[in-house]
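Researcher: Here's a chain I'd like modeled. Treat it as a single chain, no partners, no ligands.
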Amino acid sequence: MKANLSRREFAGLLGLGFAWPFAARLGAKVAPKNFRIRTITAGLQLQNAVKLEHAEAAVTFLQRARTSFLAEGFEVQTLRIATQPLQEYLPNWMKTSSLQAIQALDRFAVDNEVMFSIGPVITGDDYHADFAAWAAELVQQTKNISFTVRVASPEHGIHHQTLRIAAEAIQAIAHATPGGDGNFRFAATAFVPSGTPFFPAAYFSQGNTFSIGLESPNLLSEAFRGALNLRQAKRQLKTDMEAAFGPVAELGRKLAQQARWRYLGIDVSPAPGLDASIGQAIEILSNAPFGSPSTLTACAAITDVLKDLSIEKCGYSGLMLPVLEDPVLAQRAAEGRYGISELLLYSSVCGTGLDVVPLPGDTPVDALAAVITDVAALATKYRKPLSARLFPVPGKRAGERVSFDNPYLTETVVLPLRVG
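Model: Modeled as a single isolated chain. Structure tokens:
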């Protein structure tokens, strides 16, 4: 039976919506800032999926960490836990009993108001004919569980068999969940390192570790306003980011020392939200609508700054361009200013790949696999973390408007995917 999500639960699924209730409950005075802590993500090393003592300890650590950040005036949106790859603690993950064990992990996550990643399910270049059906059932039977398959890695390059598995899963999940929304919790990943805090790609190869992800497009917009040229804009952004993120890193190191945990750093990717648009920041820098010829230059410039920050970084630490989560990106897509090819082009100089990209509901598996292959090829060529979180919308064709019963997604149009 499908798990029905309330709007609040769906907000939690997307990694949003918990900050202010927690702040009010704790009596914290959250000072206005031009960025937020999107997530504090703890690494969990499970021996099996039944014993949850270490998971309980991770929740305790995350709650204390959130309290400490709130006390310093930071807004903390979500707490998350991510494990090592699933096969390391559930080798027979296709069995019914294993699905029940994952459901128990999900209940634990829901009860403790955390998001939970079971890591990459398939890490090698293997084909599992039943994976798509299993993935669709997993999404239907859980609320807070995220997972991935690995389609490229430093050890093996492109995983050619896994590419099709990912495409089949995306299609199956799309048609098993309302509006295809289940694909928020699944992605095909390439070269994504351990310790990445953002979901659904997050996994950790060690326990008692944590990392931090940020929502910072408004900081970028402020840095770019008034800049006379690209060089000045980059210099101002670097200054502003290091000043803003330094206290976050300092508190992270302090928390690690107190708890005898390991702090892995900050994923400095400026993850957007409906009131914090990376599209707007790029347009301020380029002085043109997103998708114009100057967009590529702006994306590259921002990425240069992110890579040059003198703080401990982890994860993607690149530019996120999630079409459905950013009002400016969504508007420019509706205006026909860019498409899949342009997003892939931008990923070559920045990016985290293709993120929540709405596609026609009848997109064939072969076409989905081809798009994922392009993402895997880019990751392999440039040795950089990328992922594909594609969003076929059942019943929708290219150019048709699409909206969701979700306060954290905005309207746009389904992007065309030329086939043949």
